[in-house]
Specification:
By secondary structure, the protein is an alpha+beta fold. The protein has 14 helices and 7 strands.
Length: about 375
């Protein structure tokens, strides 16, 4: 084998120190001569492993290298785990990496432009970093998670859940990218009140549709119509590209949705009408873009401030999150009809967990009553 910056590795003495190699440095000097670096070679599970031992200037000798090699072989023979100096150094590095270091890389990769990213960054900076930022990930314990809860005491259950969730997400990012080792415990997530369902009353819906009809920027209105007619999430609408819209098969592909796995949902007649009109508009105003609802310059949209003005104009409740609320309204409308099961609604919303869909069960009173009446008939024969 040839070193990157030096000459070829050579055996020191096959009989006296088998498996011990050396090479002379082209730049380092020791006692007036080229410095010498020793390596050892041995087989582990049938694979040849090379390990750097050290330089002569660091007081390493062929005998020290041979002793280290014998120790490696002895451990392997007795079934013990064998780790090289390089592997031990890497373990030590991972054991001492700080949560703040991983968080820096996480937010650098994720970015901070989206609303969700800003919320997560704010939670980390305000509640997680002051408590755990300077701690090595490997030394974190369940008690540290309790410290986060104490730091966020007085906040809503959903906010505390979000604080622990961003902590978990940062650590998982570090593990996935080889920055740290996984935690030795599972973070116990608190229960959060996420059963709030937002939907429009008939009067609110009437005002909302009137504003959409009269609003000058119809491309923005079409995004809101997609949320209302399909239940798509805001990010899924922003990500839509030409390749994701199949008019022939009447399918819409959602790539990298919240659940992570690419899925397809049916394209109903209203969605088809909205998409056709939007593509025609896009081709006239931003023909170079592949996105159905492009942002400025044809790039993928990351925000839309106009929807807030539409919400205000329609006099919708302040707490109504317009994209998310329209997604809920889509589900509530299906549930109220009594024509769709919760499983079907969950499929259309691309829920991974059926428990997320159960919140809409409260809008099935007539269906439940019919089932109860039918059960009574069956029991009475």
């Amino acid at each position: 084998m040839v070193s990157k910056n030096t000459g070829q590795r050579l055996l020191v003495n096959r009989k006296r120190w088998p498996g011990v190699y050396y090479y002379e440095s082209r730049s380092k000097r020791y006692r007036g001569k080229p410095d010498v670096c020793y390596h050892i070679a041995y087989r582990l599970d049938g694979k040849l492993k090379w390990e750097k031992v050290g330089w002569m200037s660091e007081k390493y000798t062929p005998q020290i290298a041979a002793d280290l090699r014998s120790d490696r072989l002895k451990k392997a023979r007795h079934g013990e785990e064998v780790k090289t100096h390089k592997e031990l150094r890497e373990e030590n590095r991972k054991a001492n990496v700080l949560l703040s270091e991983i968080a820096t890389e996480y937010f650098k990769i994720r970015g901070e432009a989206s609303k969700g990213a800003k919320i997560d960054k704010g939670r980390y900076d305000n509640h997680i970093a002051p408590v755990l930022g300077s701690r090595p990930v490997k030394k974190l314990s369940p008690l540290d998670m309790e410290r986060i809860k104490k730091k966020m005491d007085g906040m809503s259950a959903a906010s505390i859940w979000g604080g622990l969730e961003i902590t978990r997400r940062i650590i998982n990012f570090g593990v996935k990218n080889g920055l740290c080792e996984p935690l030795g415990f599972t973070i116990q997530m608190p229960k959060r009140d996420n059963e709030v369902v937002e939907y429009l009353t008939p009067a609110q819906l009437k005002r909302f549709l009137k504003v959409l009809k009269e609003w000058p920027a119809q491309d923005v209105c079409r995004m809101l119509q997609m949320a209302m007619f399909t239940g798509m999430r805001r990010g899924e609408i922003f990500k839509l590209e030409n390749r994701d819209v199949d008019f022939q098969q009447a399918l819409i592909t959602l790539r990298s949705p919240k659940g992570g796995k690419t899925v397809s949902i049916p394209m109903n007649k209203m969605a088809k009408k909205v998409l056709s009109a939007q593509i025609k508009w896009r081709n006239e105003h931003s023909p170079q873009s592949s996105y159905i609802f492009p942002g400025k310059g044809g790039v993928m949209r990351t925000a839309c401030t106009a929807v807030t003005r539409i919400k205000t104009k329609a006099k919708l409740p302040k707490e109504f999150r317009i994209f998310h609320g329209l997604r809920h309204h889509f589900a509530v409308t299906l549930a109220n009809s009594g024509e769709f099961s919760l499983d079907m609604i969950g499929e259309l919303l691309t829920h991974k967990d059926s428990s997320m869909t159960k919140r809409y069960g409260q809008f099935l009173p007539d269906t439940k009553k019919q089932a109860s009446d039918r059960a009574a008939e069956l029991l009475m024969g």
